[in-house]
TrEMBL record, chain A:
UniProt name for this protein: Pyruvate ferredoxin oxidoreductase, alpha subunit
Subunit composition and interactions: Heterotetramer of one alpha, one beta, one delta and one gamma chain.
InterPro entries linked: PFOR_II, Pyruvate:ferred/Flavod_OxRd, Pyrv_Fd/Flavodoxin_OxRdtase_N, THDP-binding, Transketo_C/PFOR_II
Entry superkingdom: Archaea
Species: Archaeoglobus sulfaticallidus PM70-1
Pyruvate:ferredoxin oxidoreductase core domain sequence ranges: 261-361
One GO term of the biological process aspect: response to oxidative stress
CDD domains in alphabetical order: TPP_PYR_PFOR_IOR-alpha_like (cd07034)
A Pfam family it matches: POR_N
Domain Pyruvate flavodoxin/ferredoxin oxidoreductase pyrimidine binding: 13-236
Protein keywords: Oxidoreductase, Pyruvate
GO molecular function: oxidoreductase activity, acting on the aldehyde or oxo group of donors
Automatic annotation (TrEMBL), chain B:
A Gene Ontology molecular function term of the record: oxidoreductase activity
Protein name: Pyruvate ferredoxin oxidoreductase, beta subunit
A Pfam short name: TPP_enzyme_C
GO biological process, one term: sulfur compound biosynthetic process
Quaternary structure annotation from Swiss-Prot or TrEMBL: Heterotetramer of one alpha, one beta, one delta and one gamma chain.
Entry-linked CDD domains: TPP_PFOR_porB_like
Gene3D superfamilies: 3.40.50.970
Domain Thiamine pyrophosphate enzyme TPP-binding residues, every copy: 37-199
Keywords: Oxidoreductase, Pyruvate
From TrEMBL, chain C:
InterPro entries with a match to the protein in the record: 4Fe4S_Fe-S-bd, 4Fe4S_Fe_S_CS, PorD_KorD
GO MF term set: 4 iron, 4 sulfur cluster binding; metal ion binding; oxidoreductase activity, acting on the aldehyde or oxo group of donors, iron-sulfur protein as acceptor
Subunit and partners: Heterotetramer of one alpha, one beta, one delta and one gamma chain.
Pfam families from the UniProt entry: Fer4_21
Record domain 4Fe-4S ferredoxin-type: where: 27-56, 59-89
Protein name according to UniProt: 2-oxoacid:acceptor oxidoreductase, delta subunit, pyruvate/2-ketoisovalerate family
């Protein structure tokens, strides 16, 4: 049933249909309305078999989910930015304990200076933590990825936390028509959580051990394997989703106009729509550009990225974050995936801290790169004229 | 039945191992344990060397209160509350310092959890650094007694009052010197719905500089000098205290421990001892401890 | 030896029993069975759960488990019947 809803609701509605057992959260802009919606559902008795709790911090919320998940519950939270960083110690711990907590991160910039607006710096900081991370472009995609996240995270071959990244404000606050799932569809796709091990007095196991040097490495090897296995599980589940709902979001990456593209443009998240628009217009004018949307960021689909970009002799990545002291984090990954090929490589950080990315800016960057007017390497998008002073 | 098995790595004469055994025995093993990082975790949870005979989880240093709350919520949601009580074991640092946020959240939301603070009065797992529950004058590696400083300068944080102020249905202090009292309090706590806080004095042989033969005797002296009042609060009301027959001067407790030895040598040591005696006197007055 | 790597490091219960800590200490407790009243004080207070009251003939006495006893002396210090004494292990005895 198509309804015009805000991004918040598209998440909350999908979460409800997944029948979580424990939701713990802490308010933070621009995530708050997701959990407000869930709190309302809980208050109205719409979340059967579920306990909803507002924690004393994001750190507490994530910790509550560690306990709940270990005890066998299906768990959900949502956060972003400072909240995600505050949660990070717990989330990395949950990854090591192989607890399939699902969270939605409404991507927001990090302090300082404080900014409540959107970019991808927050989730990038958690790149190496053992969380599955995907980025969505629209609220429909965000909505659809919630049941998928539970299914993949809880797959016995995976058992890792799953973070859905959706752009704060750009998606969360946007009203869009969303074809809302119904309970039967979700039930047919997502079975109840059946944890392979959980805390019970009937079989009193010990969770959260410490591992001396003689076995720690092996735990990390197993974690890496689970992440790599998740690549296949994700792809299978993306396909299964398309079959069940008829909505095909593609696999780890989605390529458009790439077969004969001289310049391939890489983008993640909500910016992709605008980039696509520019690419289409340029194509009409005979400019050979193509687009690669990256959906799965961790595990990183290096093979698929390389395959998709193999024909282009110029690559341009639009970044929403900076790896300070090097380049943009997505560009670093793409470049590494393309090892062995030798295209010209450009990356541009745009829209940091919620700065608007006008169509004209994208058009100019793409055209300049296409026409060879830009030096290879990492750049910032439009930067105002400024003077660096002490005070 | 064993709920905390032999072969764990605690120092000989470890006070907190005694407390843990008595708590688990009182609950007859019908419990879920959430444990913060610290001595207990490190002696009992090595991979494939677990000492635990009850379901156990260690997550982080500062989140045992929240992890326990999560277990409680899960049991509620999954309709498995009859399996057992949720218990936290956390050290004094994990309780009064780094984990006070998650503990406060757990108490504030009144989760049905028995929170046990194993109070050995410093970060003993890492080798005796001062915590909020380290008593005044104690020589720790981060408050080393020297020419200018005579051990910890501040007082021991009053976690009992902090717990009471949260409006808890049950708050108590206890000591390994009185093991039957620990079991009684835990059993009582298990019958009360909501968040419970029990702080157990658990001497640390290495940190305090005592012999295993003094574990119980030193804990008893802490009580007998009124430096560790043994009290019980129900719904904010002080309902019971362990009275002291003939209160002993604090020197008797201090002199047997290496951590206070400097107080008997330093020219200003007596000043600190006097201050410690004042704390004991205040405790005795506050809780009406003298018989 | 093949390392078993469980999901998230989950361990089976009570495996610490595989670590015999009986050689840690220098002393060991000896129970005077005549004096022992089987009051269980030592059983409750042993940090290592290695002294228990068992039936011996028609009486009950405390029996230390030397496989795990670390020789801390808690049992000795708390025995109300004065029935436990600590003895130095042979290997720590210095010859005159």
């Amino acid at each position: 049933m198509k309804k015009v809803v805000r991004g918040f609701y598209s998440i909350a509605h999908a979460v409800k249909l997944c029948k979580p057992n424990v939701i713990a959260a802490y308010p933070i802009t621009p995530q708050t309305e997701i959990v407000e919606n869930l709190a309302k559902m809980y208050s109205n008795g719409e979340l059967e078999g579920c306990e909803y709790v507002t924690a004393e911090s994001e750190f507490g919320a994530a910790s509550i989910l560690v306990g709940a998940s270990a005890a066998g519950a299906r768990t959900f939270t949502a956060t972003c930015s400072q909240g995600l960083i505050l949660m990070s110690e717990v989330l990395l711990n949950a990854a090591g304990m192989r607890l399939p907590i699902v969270l939605v991160n409404t991507n927001r910039a990090l302090s300082a200076p404080l900014s409540i607006w959107n970019d991808h710096q927050d989730s990038m900081v958690l790149r190496d933590g053992g969380l599955i991370q995907i980025h969505v472009e629209t609220n429909q995609e965000a909505h659809d990825m919630v049941p998928l996240a539970f299914k993949v995270a809880e797959n016995s071959k995976v058992m890792l936390p799953f973070m859905i990244n959706m752009d704060g404000f750009k998606l969360t606050h946007a009203y869009e028509p969303v074809d809302l799932l119904d309970q039967d569809t979700v039930d047919s796709f997502l079975p109840p959580y059946n944890p392979p091990v959980y805390m019970t007095t009937k079989n009193p196991l010990t969770f959260g051990c410490y591992a001396p040097p003689h076995c720690y490495t092996e735990f990390r090897v197993v974690m890496q394997r689970a992440m790599m296995r998740a690549l296949d599980v994700l792809e299978e589940t993306y396909r299964e989703w398309a079959e069940v709902t008829g909505r095909d979001w593609g696999g780890h990456v989605v390529g458009e106009f790439l077969d004969d593209a001289e310049l391939a443009i890489v983008s993640m998240g909500s910016l992709t729509g605008m980039v696509r628009d520019v690419v289409k217009e340029l194509r009409k004018n005979g400019v050979k550009v193509g687009l690669l949307k990256i959906r799965t960021f961790r595990p990183f689909p290096a093979k698929q990225v390389k395959e998709a970009l193999k024909n282009a002799n110029k690559i341009l990545v639009f970044e929403r974050a900076v790896s300070f002291g090097y380049e943009g984090p997505v560009g670093i990954e793409v470049k590494s995936a393309l090892f062995g090929l030798n295209p010209e490589f450009y990356s541009f950080a745009v829209g940091l801290g919620g700065r608007d990315v006008p169509r004209e800016e994208l058009m100019k960057i793409i055209t300049d790169v296409y026409e060879g007017k830009v030096e290879q390497g990492f750049h910032f998008g439009t930067v105002k004229e400024f003077e660096e002073v002490i005070v | 039945m064993t709920y905390f098995a032999s072969g764990h790595g605690a120092c000989p004469g470890c006070g907190l191992a005694i407390a843990v055994r008595n708590v688990l025995d009182a609950l007859e093993g019908k419990c879920f344990v959430a444990n913060s990082t610290g001595c207990l975790e490190i002696i009992s949870s090595q991979y494939e060397r677990s000492a635990w005979g009850v379901p156990y989880i260690h997550s982080l240093f500062e989140n045992a209160g929240a992890v326990a709350a999560g277990i409680e919520l899960a049991l509620k949601a999954l309709k498995r509350t009859d399996e057992g009580k949720v218990v936290v074991f956390a050290g004094d640092g994990a309780t009064a310092d780094i984990g006070i946020g998650t503990l406060s959240g757990m108490m504030d939301r009144n989760h049905d959890v028995i929170y046990i603070c194993l109070d050995n009065e410093a970060y003993q797992n890492t080798g005796n650094q001062q915590s909020g529950l380290t008593p005044m004058g104690s020589n720790t590696t981060t408050t080393p007694a020297g020419a200018i400083m005579l051990g910890k300068t501040g007082r021991k944080k009053d976690m009992i009052s902090i717990a009471v102020a949260h409006g808890l249905p049950y708050v108590a202090s206890a000591s390994v010197a009185f093991h039957a009292d620990i079991r009684r309090k835990v059993k009582k706590a298990a019958e009360i719905e909501g968040a419970k806080y029990i702080q157990i004095h658990t001497p640390c042989v290495t940190g305090w500089g005592i012999d295993g033969k003094q574990t119980i005797t030193s804990a008893k002296l802490a009580y007998e000098t009124a430096l560790y009042p043994i009290v019980e609060f129900e719904n904010g009301e002080l309902t019971r205290v362990r009275k002291i027959k003939e209160r002993k001067p604090v020197e008797e407790y201090l002199k047997i421990q290496r951590r206070f030895r400097h107080l008997f040598k330093h020219p200003r040591g007596q000043e600190i001892i006097n201050l410690i005696q004042k704390i004991a006197d205040e405790n005795a007055k506050k809780y009406n401890l003298d018989l | 030896m093949v390392v078993r790597v469980t999901l998230g490091g989950v361990s089976k219960p009570l495996l610490s029993k595989n670590m015999k800590t009986g050689d840690w200490g220098t002393e060991y407790p000896v129970v005077d069975e005549e004096k022992c009243t089987a009051c269980k004080t030592c059983e409750h207070l042993c940090p290592d759960a290695c002294i228990v009251i068992v039936e011996k003939g028609d009486t009950k006495v405390a029996v230390p488990d030397y496989d795990y006893c670390k020789g801390c002396g808690v049992c000795f210090s708390v025995c109300p019947a004065d029935a436990i004494k600590m003895e130095l292990k042979e290997i720590y005895k210095v010859e005159d």
